[in-house]
Amino acid sequence: MASVTLTDVSKRFGDNTVVKNVFLDIADGEFVVLVGPSGCGKSTTLRMIAGLEDITEGELKIGERVVNDMTPRDRDVAMVFQSYALYPHMTVYDNISFGLRLRKMPKPEIDKRVRDAAQKLGLTELLDRKPKAMSGGQRQRVAMGRAIVRQPAVFLFDEPLSNLDAKLRVQMRAEIARMHRREGVTTVYVTHDQIEAMTLADRIVVMNFGVVQQVGAPLELYREPANTFVAGFIGSPSMNLFDVDLRATGGEPTVTGKGLSVPVPERLRPHLGDQTKLVLGVRPEHLSEAVDGPHMTARVDMLEPLGAEVHALGDVEGQPIVASLEPDTAVRVGGPVGLRMDLDQIHLFDRETGLALGRQAHRGAA
Amino acid sequence: MSGQASGRRGLVWLPVAALIIAGGFLAVAWSQGVADGEAYQARRAATIARGVAWVHVQEAMRVDDAGEGQTQRFVEALPEKVPGVREALVLKGVNYKAHSDAALVEQRLDVDSLAAKALYDDARRLKANVDKNAEERARNPALGYDPYPEVQIIPVEGGLQALAVAEDAGKYIGTARITTGPAPYRFELPWLVLLVALGLSALWLIVGGRLPTRPRIAVGVLALAGLTVAGSVTLPGWRNDLRRAQADGQAGTLAALDEAGLLAAQAPPWDPEEWADLDEDEQQEETARIEANALMPYLDRGLNGALEGRLVTIARANEGDDTRLEPPAGLPAGALMFAAEGRAVYFSGAAFDAAVVTDEADVRLWGIGFGVIGLLILLLGELGQLRRMGRAAVDHRGAYGYLSPAIVGMVVLVFIPVVYGIVLGFTQRTYNIIEFAGLTNYIEILTDFDLGDPTNFYFKLGVTLMWTILNVGLHVSIGLFLAVLLNDQMLKARGIYRVILIVPWAIPNYITALIWKGMFNKQFGAVNAFIEMMGGESLSWFQSFWPAFSTNLITNTWLGFPFMMVVCLGALQSIPSDLYEAAWVDGADRWQRFRRITLPLLMPALVPAVIVGAVWTFNMFNIIYLVSGGAPNGATDILITDAYRWAFERDRYGYAAAYSTIIFLILLGFTLITNRITGATKGAFE
After folding, report:
1. Between chains, do B686 and A94 touch, taking CB under 8 Å as contact?
2. Which domains are seen in chain A, by residue range?
C-alpha cells in the first residue's frame, strides 16, 4: 500500500497536450475518483499512473519511489479495464491467477489467494468457466478478482462500470465500495459518471481539457464549486447559471440579470472585488415556489415528477432554468411560476475567469 | 399425425423401392443392349475387314485376272449377305481395288474430299504401324502381341468403320475398309422383373398394412432381395439374342466368302474336335501344309481386342525351334474358321465370349447396386428418415434452389472426378484394355519395401513428410515473425513492407518456380554467382539429393510464408490491445505476453491455416515438378509428382489412381487427427 503523488505531470501527443500540469497527492488508502467529460484527460492520467503511457513532464511517485521510467509490471499496481480485458483463452481461475503465476508465487499460495478472492466476489462456482460463458457482471467481478489477488500497492479502475446496465452498475458500485473498505488499498478510479464519483470517492478530482478543475471531498465540491465548470458538472440536475451584473442599489450590492435581481448575501460580500460582470449560480433544489416577492418568474416548459419532488424545466426570459419543486405543486406546463432562491446557497463566479468569488485557481491550472 | 395414417403412408416405400429396382434393371438392359450391340458390331466389322484383307492377299499372290474378280465379287457381296454392312472397299495406293459400289472399282481416290483424305491418311498410318510392329517383333521375338494398332475402328453415323491392313510377309498389299450400319441388337424388356415388381407392390398395398411394422420391414427386405436376385438371374437371357446375332454375323461372313467362291470345297479340317481326332503325324502334315502356304502373319493376328485397336493374339505359332504351326490351343466354341484355296484362317470368337461373360458380371453388379438402393429406400422410408429428409427439402426449397447451381457444380467438378479416380484405382490397363483388378494396385504399392528405389512408395512418403514438415515449419515461423514485426504500430511505412512481403504470394507460383530454377542453374544461375562472389565454390544443385531438395524447399518457403504472414497479421490485429496492457500490468514481460497471450489467441486462426498449408504443401506439385523435376533420378519427387509420373510417364493409370487415393486417405487422416487434437487442446489450454 502506498500513496501516489503526481507533481506537475503533463502528457503531450505531438503538439497536443492532453494532460496539463497535474498536481495530485493521493494518500495511502484513499479512494480518489477522476471525473470529467470525455477527452478531459482523466483516463490518460490513470494510464500514466499504470505505466501504460509515458509521462512527458513531471514526476510520479508511488510510495517513496519515483516510477516515471518503470514498466507497469514493476509498479505494483493492478488495473481494471473498461472492457475487463479478460484473457479469453483462460478460465476464471487462470485469469485471476495469471499475475501471481507470472511472479512465480508458490502454487498453494496462489490457490489460497484465488479461492479467497473468488469467495469474496462470489465467483467460486465459476472458476472453471471461460469469460465468454459469463455475464457482464460476472466478468466485471473476475476483472476485480484479478486485481485483488495481486494485493497491489494501488488499484486503478478505468470506467469499470460503463459496460453494465443500470441495475448492475448500482450493485457493482456497492461491491467496489465494499472491496475498498475491506482491502483499504489506495485506489484511483476514472469515470464520467458523477454519481459514481460522489458515492465512491473520498476525494474527487474534476478534470476538463486536461486541467484539474477542483479537488475535494464530494460534498465540498457540491457545496463550494471552485468554478462554473465544477458547478455545472457536479450535481444533478445541474446548477442554474445566469449572467448577472453587480450594482450597488441603495448602498446594498445587488446582482441583476435578465428577469432577476437579488442582493448579494452577507457571506459573499467580502469577496466582491472590482469585477462587475459575474455569474450567479443556484442549484435547482435551492429554488422554491414563492407566493409573494419572487426573485424571478419562469415559464414552465416541462414537468418531471419524480415522486419526492418535481423538476420544473423552463426559462427566465430565454435563460434556461430547472427548479426542484414540492411534489404537490400547482404549477402547470405553459404556466408561469414565481421562484425564490435560498440566498444562503447561491454562488457567484467571475464571468471572465469562471472562478468562484474569493477562490484561487487550482494549483497547476493555467 | 395418427399411427394409422402414418402406417398407411409408410406402405408407399416398398412399391417405390421395387419400381426403382425394376427401373434399374430396365436401364441396365437397355444400356447393355446398346453397348453389346456396339461391341458386337465392332468385332464383326473388324473380322470382316480382316477377311477382306486376307482375300486381297490371295489376289496379290495369285497374279491372275480371276483373283481380282474374286475380290471384287466378295466385296460386292458383303452388304447384301452380311446383316448390317453398309459399305466395303479395298484401297491400294490411291485407287480402289475393290468397292461394294462396282462403279468405283479402279477409280482414283478423290484426295480433295475430306472423307477420302481421312481414309488415305488412316490407311497410311496403319501401314506404318504394320512396319513398326514388324520391327518390334524382330527386336523382341517373344512379344505376344502387336504393340501398334493394325486395325482401326471408329464410330461413324449409325455404325462403325473398320480399317485393316493387308500384308504379305511384311509387304504392304492394301487396306480394306468395312462400314456397318446400326447395331443389330435386340432390346428386350426385363418382363419378369417388371411384373414381379408390380405384383409385389399391389400385394403390399393390399395386405402390407395388416402387418406390424417390424415384421413388415423384414418381409419387405426379403421381397426386394428376391426381386434383385430374380432380376440378376434373368437378365442374361436377352444376351442369347446377341449370341444369335454373332452367329448370324459369322454365317453371313461365311456366306459372303462362299458367294465369292473363296470357300474351299473341302470341309475345314481344324474343327477342334476333328483336330483332336488326328494323330500326331496327321497333325504335323496338316501343319506343314498350312505353313507352306505362309499364313503365319494372319494367324498371328487374331482379332481379339480389336475394339481397342490393338490385337491380342489368340492363335499363334509356337515359337519353338521347329516353327511348327499349331492351331490355337483349345480353339473356343463359336470361333469362326474357314479355309479357301488350300489356305486356312481362324477368326476366334474367344475374346468376344470373354467380354460377354465380363459384361454379365458387370450387369449383376449393377443389379445388386439397384437392389441395395431399393433396400435403403425401404428402410429409411419405413423408419421415417426419408420423409423427414423430404420435408426438410420442401421446407427449405428456397435454400436448396439457391444452392442447386453450387451443388451441380460440386457434383460435376468434384464428386464425379473423385469417384472416377477412386474407381480407376481398382483397375489395371494392359495396352488400352482396362480391367477390374481389385486391390492389386494397392497391394503392389503398399507391400513394396525396397527403399533403395526412389520410386518406392515408402521412400516417397518419407521425402513428402520431410518436405511438408520443413516447409510448414518455415512458413509459420517466418510468417509469424514478420507478422509480429509488421503489427508494431510504431513501425513506419508498414503498408509498403506488407505489400512487398505479399508479392511472392501474388506471383503465379509456376513463374516463381521457373525463376528459382534458373537461379539455381549451375553455370548461369544467380545463386552460384553469389556463392562464387563470396569466395565459395559453385554447386551442382540438381546432382545430389540434399542440394536438389534444398532448391525445392527454398523456392516453396519463398512462396509459402506470405500466406502464413497474412493469416497471422489478421489474427494479431483481432487481439484487443487492452489484453496486452492487462498482461503488462499483471507483470508479463514481452516474451511472456507473446507466449501467454499472442500465441494462444493466434491458434484458432493458425491451426486451420497450418492444416490447409500442410495439405497444400503435401500436394505441392508445381514446385517439385518445375524446380528439381525430381532430380536426381526421381529422388526428390514427392508422392503427388510420382503419381503424375505413374500416370503420364509410366502409363499406369490404375496404379496412379490408387496412388492418388492413398494420398487422399493420408491427408484425410491427417486432417481428422489434427482437428481432434487441436479441439482437445483448446479446452486444456494453459
Report:
1. yes
2. 4-231 (3.40.50.300), 237-350 (2.40.50.140)
Spatial CA neighbour of B246 closest among B53, B39, B35: B39
The DSSP element (H or E) to which B615 belongs, if any, is: helix B599-618
- Best-predicted range by mean pLDDT among B78-92, B100-114, B215-229? B215-229
- pLDDT value for A361: 64
Least Cα distance to B626 among B614, B650, B610, B644 occurs for B644
Angle at B585 between CA A157 and CA A105, to 5 degrees: 115
On the question of pLDDT at B382 being above 50, the answer is: yes
Q: Name the region of A122 (left: φ>0; alpha: ψ -120 to 50; beta: rest).
A: left
Mean pLDDT by 10 residues, chain A (366 residues): 86 88 89 90 90 89 88 88 89 90 89 89 87 87 89 89 85 88 90 88 91 89 88 87 84 84 83 83 88 83 88 89 86 86 86 79 56
A interface mutation test: which of B586, B597, B603, B685 has the most A CBs within 10 A?
B586
Q: How far apart are CA B601 and CA B607, in angstroms?
A: 11
Q: Concatenate the DSSP letters of all residues of B503-555 into one string.
A: HHHHS-HHHHHHHHHHHT-TTT-HHHHHHHHTT-----TTTSHHHHHHHHHHH
Of B578, B596, B601, the CB nearest to A81: B578
HEC secondary structure over A114-130: HHHHHHHHCCHHHCCCC
- Give ∠ CA B22-B24-B25 in degrees, rounded to 5: 65
Record: contact A99-B601, CB cut-off 8 A: no
As a whole number of angstroms, the distance between CA A141 and CA B308 comes to: 80
CB distance A106 to A114 below 8 Å: no
Which grid cell is A199? Answer: 458515492
Cα distance between residue A153 and residue A72, in whole Å: 12
Q: What span, in angstroms and rounded, lies between the C-alpha atoms of A321 and A159?
A: 31
Numbered residues of chain B with Cβ closer than 8 Å to any chain A Cβ? 576, 578-579, 581-589, 592, 596-597, 600-601, 603, 685-686
What angle, rounded to 10 degrees, do the helices at B577-586 and A92-102 form?
Answer: 50
- Check if the beta carbon of residue B174 is closer than 8 Å to that of residue B91: yes
- Among A53, A89, A95, the strongest candidate for a mutation testing the B interface, having the largest count of B CBs within 10 A, is A89
Shortest Cα–Cα distance, B669 to chain A (Å): 27
Supply the pLDDT for residue B550.
94
- Position B82 scores a pLDDT of 63
Grid cell at residue B202: 399391389
Count Cβ–Cβ pairs < 8 Å, chain A vs chain B.
Answer: 66
DSSP string, A135-188: -HHHHHHHHHHHHHHT--SEEEEESTTTTS-HHHHHHHHHHHHHHHHHH--EEE
Helices (H), B310-454: 350-382, 385-395, 397-410, 416-424, 440-446
At B335, give phi and psi (nearest 5°): -70, 140
- pLDDT over threshold 70, residue B494: yes
Give the predicted TM-score (pTM) of the model.
0.60
- The DSSP bridge partners found for residue B476 are none
Q: How far is CA B637 from CA A86, B43, B317, B560, B628, in A?
A: 49, 43, 44, 19, 8
Q: Which residues on chain B are in Cβ contact (under 8 Å) with A71?
A: 584
**Phi first, then psi: what are they for B111, rounded to 5°?**
-70, -20
Domains and CATH numbers, chain B: 28-186+241-353 (3.30.450.20), 417-447+654-686 (no CATH), 466-651 (1.10.3720.10)
pLDDT at B40: 60
Mean pLDDT of chain B: 73
Contacts of A270 (CB under 8 A, 6+ apart): A358
Question: ipTM of the predicted structure?
Answer: 0.84
